[in-house]
Design a protein that fits this description.
The chain is mainly alpha-helical and 105 residues long. The chain has six helices and no strands. It has helices at residues 2-10, 15-27, 36-46, 55-67, 82-89, 95-103. The radius of gyration is 15 Å and the shape is elongated.
């Protein structure tokens, strides 16, 4: 509920304020929650009308989302644990998200 609310608010406030929200979300440790902080930041960025105002923040977010493609589990895993192995091997950033982030560059 709160996530949806923040996402909607991002579309109603000025770009600079959204940039501050994105900065806040990006410094959070989202590993335990599957990096939902970064995906929420990307959704909020999609609602910004004038992304050029926060281009540096958008580029920083793009870098963090790209870094997720290099993410690995913190422990050794084998093919015995197929679900976790497949999760790591198939992590892909949705094209729609990449397009939104690239528009900000």
């Amino acid at each position: 509920m709160l996530i949806s609310l923040l996402w909607l608010i991002a579309g109603m406030i000025d770009a600079k304020s959204v940039g501050e929200i994105l900065d806040y979300l990006m410094v959070q440790d989202g590993e335990e929650e599957k990096f939902i902080n970064l995906f929420l930041a990307a959704k909020c960025l999609a609602e910004v009308r004038n992304r050029s105002v926060i281009a540096s923040v958008a580029n920083k977010l793009f870098g963090k989302v790209k870094d997720l493609t290099k993410y690995d589990l913190w422990y050794y895993y084998t093919y015995d644990n197929a679900e976790e192995t497949q999760l790591v091997q198939t992590l892909k950033i949705p094209q729609e998200l990449l397009d939104i982030l690239n528009e900000s560059s």
